[in-house]
Amino acid sequence: MVVEGKAISEIGAGVCVLLGVAEGDGEEEAARLAVKTARLRIFENERGKFDGSLLDTGGEALVVSQFTLVADTAKGNRPSFSHAAPPEQAEPLYERFCAALEAEGARVARGLFGARMVVELVNDGPVTIVL
Fold this sequence. Notes:
Layout (H helix, E strand, L loop, with lengths): L1 E2 L2 E2 L6 E6 L7 H13 L3 E2 L5 E3 L1 H4 L2 E6 L21 H17 L3 E4 L6 E2 L13
Parallel strand pairs: 3-6, 6-7
Antiparallel strand pairs: 1-2, 1-8, 4-5
């Protein structure tokens, strides 16, 4: 991940988590989502079946704050972000999610909250999941 031309974090095999925080989200949701992320069986075993979790495989997590995931596109052609939590509420929940994921035993690389980031991703497989 690059911010202002400088590489700030990277991971090997694992997951790229785009984390959108909405109004009304809280610490319990952040912690629950981190546990789910760490234990979700989304990595293939030797038979090609989804059987391994991030923890089982020793994978890493790159966690990127992404308020645009909360976009409302129901009206018109310009997305509304009015349901996204304001930065002063979202950043502590982003940090809570990262800390909870680390507490589960995952190695976590972070983006820079609120920054314009360049994220490069190699998607090796058919898995993209919304939690």
